[in-house]
Amino acid sequence: MGQVRLGVNVDHVATVRNARGGLHPDPLDAARVALEAGADGIVMHLREDRRHIRDDDVRRYRASFSAPLNLEMAATEEMLRFAREVRPHACCLVPERRAEVTTEGGLDVAGQRHSLASVVDALKEANIRVSLFIDPDPVQVEAAAAVGAPVVELHTGRYAEGRPGELDRLRHAAALTSGLGLECHAGHGLTYANVGRVAALPEVRELNIGHFLIGQAILEGLRATVAEMKRIVAAARV
Ligand code: PXP
To answer: Residue 188 Cα, ligand 1 centroid: separation in angstroms?
Structure first.
């Protein structure tokens, strides 16, 4: 089995930055650290409400990094225009409104084949690799192949919640991708504790992980940060 690429999602660095309305911490600084640590690419989700990542973050990343950027976005005209402008290496189409979501949370590709096919085509024409974020459901995997997407990202959220049978659903959906010529990615809710069984699925080529990594980085990094602040404060009083 080949290596599995890791895409690091830096959205929640932007969440912390935005909590104070300033510039710190910069998600691009986090991207740099993640890449230095071995991440194979960076993931940013540009939401319609811009609640974490902003247009400028994506533009700055493209201006100063050459490592792959996977831009997660809704399949809307506005986002398509933006993707064509910034030209990320990949776009992952994700649901944003309730109507686009299947019962479990992935994109309802089977229910909106026509509109998704035109967005997939437009992105492919712009030389952007397209993936569709779907539930591990054979109907959705087949619909993704039918609309011409080269990649699917299987939603691991229910597996991460520990629901019974979810690993089997992921296994079957992943197996189906190779028969259909689709590249298989996976993500959502993955942690140190649960990633191994997904990473072991032979078809999975890429994992995209965000929330846990950023949360864990706070816990693992706080010791050094507090120690440094203590040092600076003490040094100011000698
Ligand atoms: N993949 C997709 C398509 C996502 O939308 C998200 C969440 O933004 C992730 C992966 C990462 O999920 P998490 O932040 O739970 O690791």
So the answer is: 4
Residue spans of beta strands (DSSP E) within the chain? 5-9, 41-45, 69-73, 90-93, 129-134, 151-155, 183-187, 204-209
Give pLDDT, residue 104.
85
- Residues 184-209 pLDDT 10s: 999 999 999 999 999 999 999 999 99
- Farthest CA pair distance, the chain: 70
Does the beta carbon of 106 lie inside 6 Å of ligand 1? no
Which residue in 72, 96, 100, 206 is the catalytic one? 72
CATH class for domain 5-236?
Answer: alpha beta
Q: How many angstroms separate the alpha carbon of residue 45 from the centre of ligand 1?
A: 8
Tokens coding 53: 């990542």
- CA–CA dist 109, 114 (Å, integer): 9
pTM of the predicted model as reported, rounded to 2 decimal places? 0.97
